[in-house]
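Input.
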Amino acid sequence: MQHVSINGASIEYHEQGRGEPIVLVHGAPSDYRLWLPHCGLLASRLRAIAYTQRYFGVGEWRPDWPPFGIRTHADDLVTLLRNRVAEPAHVVAWSYGAHVALTAAHEAPELFRSLFVYEPGVPTYVTDPQELHAFASDADVMFGPVFAAVERGDHEAGVRALLDGSGGSSGYFDAQPPERRRVQLDSARVLPLLLAQPPSPPLTCDDLRALRMPAAVAWGERTRPFFGVVSRAAARCIPGAHAAVAGATHMWPEERPHELVEHVQRFLARAGEP
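Output.
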């Protein structure tokens, strides 16, 4: 683990391998440690870089930081790509991090060699009324227990509820390996900020359609509507080869890192990359 200064924050990151850079952007609640297995698998052919987004993980917070949200995290990703990576990079992003990456790719496409996102969760480009209703209804079911836990100050219970909802089953959080639970709980304090963040940059379908780099969207065959609606909408907007992952839920990147890396490698091969 190393540190790099990004827009006034000391950011943890892990770098492994040589070749073209591939940057891995985590979701919530998590940090760079989520991606360590993936970095090991990618490092034989690529320079894999996983970093912890501002406010996540166990680092110290500063009162002069910009507010938690997609805007801040997209600005940080752009700065990381421009100043630390220093050449166009492949970017892989999941969940909350996927909207961060899509925003950065729209605003600074010259920094992206390609973009692979799994289950983005922000519906700014969803316009179909029935899909919006399905998204909102499922958001109420999924996040109701999370809001209730945060309102009573029990952030650990909030993480448990969020992971149970993301994994699609009661008890999902407790059934995970201890090291995964530890990483998630290390970011428990971010939940109040996550739930109260300012509106996300309003990406439209036209914005996604205009992305200039090879891009792909993937989602789980068994994922819940909150993620599935947004993912399929993104896939309709972005030209490219998209895929539903057989038997997968939202937690596929952590559950089956080998499969995720295989999907990314196939995507890069189709795009003419290593």
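The domain at 2-126+198-270 is CATH 3.40.50.1820 (Rossmann fold).
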